[in-house]
Write a structure and sequence with these properties.
The protein has three helices and two strands; from the N terminus they run αααββ. With 83 residues, it is mostly helical. A two-stranded antiparallel ribbon has the order 1-2. Strand 1 and strand 2 form a beta hairpin. It comes from Streptomyces endophyticus. This is Winged helix-turn-helix domain-containing protein.
Length: 83
């Protein structure tokens, strides 16, 4: 992980995380169709709460970048929408 949440930034932590994850997805770190790390893993990785991770994932779902399958996880969509 190279990027971190900036606790002094004006943006909410969940917005920062959504932006970081979008860059990781669009940069190919999370390939289309693959599962991204779970909420607990992301919360630990970025030093934030599970609710913050959930809110970030909502942003990514709203942008059409990921889909969440109950009891399976969150996956990058097969075809990324344009930026």
């Amino acid at each position: 992980m190279s990027e971190k949440i900036d606790p002094t930034a004006a943006e909410y932590h969940y917005v920062q995380l959504a932006e970081i994850l979008e860059r990781r997805i669009r940069g190919g770190e999370f390939a289309p169709g693959t599962r991204i790390p779970g909420e607990m893993v992301l919360a630990q990785e970025y030093g934030i709460g599970n609710q913050t991770v959930r809110r970030a994932l909502v942003i990514l779902r709203d942008k059409g970048l990921v889909v969440t399958v109950h009891a399976r996880g969150t996956f990058v969509v097969r075809e990324l929408p344009p930026t």
